[in-house]
């Protein structure tokens, strides 16, 4: 078979830009765990800037949210700890430098372009306060997540779980996560606008600014979708939201406090004592025990998260482009290693597949490597400059970026997947269970019911072995239930801290 370089044709030979991008996806032959070079194995296109910008905005928002959640939770859980915004931004910058170089530019950009970038585990953010209050330690949690993730990837468990999840179950999960995430961002931006004060110090004058930003965003997003330019949504809508907020008089709320330079990259500063950094010291046995159920829960949520991102590629890529689809097991391997390394140097992120990069990249019909390299450079530049982080974490920018870049596309993809009545039934059960319990248990239980013909396609069990129908789904349900009971997520359960 001819190499990518020999099969490449200039864009001028195609009738449309879309046809050229389709051809690029079909001729690529990524080298797994071998050096991939620009020109020989892939090319940079201007479309790669879109997922790079989108991923940069998204990861700044997500990292800062994670670190603020840790700071708040640890401050509440320990009398001797007081952590705030400055700590959160500094730790975020640590996470944006070393992991970006090692696992974005080098790993996904040059050595395994089929492994999606290791980003942030968005669904875990609301649980971080509970993790801190349960007595967990960020470093202990990272080590456990890394070990469990590596075990799952070694035995190809991630790709198997993806295959066992039908379109109905996956669609229902996407719809629920997209809807709840969207409502959260809408509430945040409206709460921000209601808290603004005018120059005359009359609170509430700018209370409608959040609504105005949301209306403008919906109109712009709809127009981009109409002209088939939805991959521009994150940068276009985020910049528009920034301009509307400034023109509307909210500029006094935007403060630049982060100075240019490098954060402290010495792991001893962060973990070596209880007087600086995280102020926790190194983890002990109790910390590992308290972190265990949350680590199981995080890794259990990886498969549906990875599945959702790969689905966007499958929906937008042309036929015969399977070689550039993200490999679930390789992505899991990179996420596991990145989780341990990133936290060891002082970070606190909980890692998963990078959705704010993959979703725009898939919509723009671009493969992983070129955009990954650009994104890594942008992320490191922002971490050094400092002041762009103050803009990216400002509620109008952060909320709109997450809304149009992650949650609305998730809803749309989920709806497209449940067109058939059987899939709609499985999706409905999955959504209902997620409302009653949580998305992880809903995914596990709906997958068990679906694979045994109790919901969805009645002929599906005929295509599966006994191991795939019963053993694996029941095992997943049991693990999820035990983990959730251990951390006290069910009403009336005490959680592991009560037994320490």
UniProtKB/TrEMBL annotation:
Pfam families: DUF3360 (PF11840). The keyword Transmembrane applies. Keywords: Membrane, Transmembrane, Transmembrane helix. It comes from the Bacteria. The keyword Flavoprotein does not apply. The chain crosses the membrane at residues 49-73, 124-152, 164-183, 203-224, 231-251, 288-307, 368-387, 393-415, 427-449, 469-490. InterPro entries: DUF3360. This is Integral membrane protein. It comes from Croceitalea dokdonensis DOKDO 023.
């Amino acid at each position: 078979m001819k190499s990518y370089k020999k099969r490449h044709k200039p864009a001028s030979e195609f009738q449309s830009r879309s046809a050229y991008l389709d051809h690029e996806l079909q001729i690529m032959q990524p080298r797994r765990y071998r050096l991939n070079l620009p020109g020989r194995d892939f090319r940079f296109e201007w479309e790669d800037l879109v997922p790079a910008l989108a991923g940069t905005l998204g990861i700044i928002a997500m990292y800062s949210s994670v670190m603020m959640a840790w700071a708040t939770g640890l401050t509440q859980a320990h009398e001797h700890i007081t952590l705030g915004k400055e700590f959160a931004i500094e730790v975020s910058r640590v996470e944006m430098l070393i992991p970006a170089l090692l696992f974005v530019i080098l790993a996904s950009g040059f050595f395994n372009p089929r492994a999606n970038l290791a980003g942030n585990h968005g669904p875990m953010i609301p649980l971080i306060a509970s993790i801190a209050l349960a007595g967990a330690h960020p470093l202990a949690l990272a080590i456990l997540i890394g070990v469990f993730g590596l075990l799952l990837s070694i035995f190809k468990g991630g790709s198997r779980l993806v295959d066992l999840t039908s379109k109905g179950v996956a669609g229902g999960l996407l719809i629920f996560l997209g809807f709840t995430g969207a409502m959260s961002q809408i509430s945040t931006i409206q709460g921000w606008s209601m808290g603004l004060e005018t120059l005359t110090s009359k609170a509430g004058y700018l209370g409608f600014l959040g609504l105005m930003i949301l209306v403008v965003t919906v109109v712009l997003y709809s127009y981009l979708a109409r002209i088939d330019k939805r991959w521009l949504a994150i940068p276009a809508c985020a910049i528009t939201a920034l301009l509307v907020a400034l023109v509307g008089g909210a500029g006094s709320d935007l403060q630049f406090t982060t100075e240019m330079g490098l954060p402290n990259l010495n792991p001893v500063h962060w973990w070596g004592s209880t007087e600086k950094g995280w102020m926790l010291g190194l983890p002990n046995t109790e910390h590992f025990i308290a972190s265990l159920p949350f680590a199981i829960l995080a890794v259990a949520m990886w498969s549906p998260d990875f599945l959702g991102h790969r689905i966007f590629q499958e929906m937008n890529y042309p036929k015969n482009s399977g070689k550039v689809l993200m490999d679930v097991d390789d992505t899991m391997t990179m996420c596991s290693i990145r989780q341990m390394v990133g936290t060891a140097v002082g970070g606190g992120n909980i890692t998963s597949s990078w959705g704010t990069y993959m979703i725009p990249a898939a919509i723009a019909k671009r493969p992983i490597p070129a955009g990954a390299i650009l994104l890594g450079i942008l992320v490191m530049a922002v971490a050094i400059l400092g002041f762009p982080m103050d803009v990216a974490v400002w509620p109008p920018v952060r909320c709109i970026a997450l809304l149009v870049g992650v949650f609305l596309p998730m809803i749309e993809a989920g709806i497209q997947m449940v067109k058939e009545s059987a899939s709609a039934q499985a999706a409905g059960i999955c959504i209902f269970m997620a409302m009653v319990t949580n998305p992880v248990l809903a995914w596990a239980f709906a997958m068990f019911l679906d694979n045994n013909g109790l919901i969805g396609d009645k002929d599906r069990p005929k295509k599966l072995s006994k191991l795939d129908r019963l053993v694996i789904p029941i095992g997943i349900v049991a693990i999820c239930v035990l983990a959730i009971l251990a951390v006290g997520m069910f009403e009336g359960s005490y959680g592991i801290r009560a037994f320490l």
